[in-house]
Amino acid sequence: MTTPDAAHPLFAEALRRMGLDALNAQIRRFPDATRTAAEAAAAIGCELSQICKSLIFAADGVPVLVLMDGASRVDVDLVRKELGADAVTRADAALVRETTGYAIGGVPPFGHRTATRVLADRGLLAHDVVWAAAGDPHTVFPLAPRELVAHAGATLADVRERPA
């Protein structure tokens, strides 16, 4: 079951500033958390790969956002190579909130507190629509992947782990 009027206030303000107010009407709020990609896919009724995860990493200590489909994992070595960094690590909860303004599990792909470099895995483009967090663990919104990449200011890259 979903309810309207779901945008996190910070995300709603970001949508307004970006001229994307119409996205507010597409945000869906679920009574149970959609904190993980699997939870979100189950709640929406879509494929796991149609979920867009917004993950913060630290590349040589500088935050970077990686957008990845829900069925895949980020290969930090590929991210390191893409960025020309010496080291890439997953950011802790404090750095995620400081960088984005949102808690882990609710980080949207754009509309963050600070500007960061953004990489989007090309695998997101395999779908007509993907679903991303809208600022808290109970909200998601749909968007065409190319629009999502454009609004996030992302660089397309191949940064997903490949099966061994």
Weakly predicted, low-confidence segments? none
Number of helices: 5
Mean pLDDT: 92
Helix content: 25-40%
Describe this structure in words.
The chain has 164 residues and is α/β, with parallel strands linked by helices. The chain has 5 helices and 8 strands. Strands 1, 2, 3, 4, 5, 6, 7 and 8 form an 8-stranded mixed β-sheet that branches. The N and C termini lie far apart (39 Å).
Please give a quick description of this structure:
With 164 residues, the chain is of the alpha/beta class. Helix content is 25%, strand content 24%.
Topology (SSEs and partners):
Elements: H1 9-17, E1 28-29, H2 37-44, E2 51-59, E3 62-69, H3 76-83, E4 88-90, H4 93-100, E5 117-121, E6 130-133, E7 139-143, H5 145-152, E8 155-157
Parallel strand pairs: 2-6, 3-5, 5-8
Antiparallel strand pairs: 1-7, 2-3, 2-4, 6-7
Task: Name its key features.
164 residues; alpha/beta; 8-stranded mixed β-sheet; 5 helices
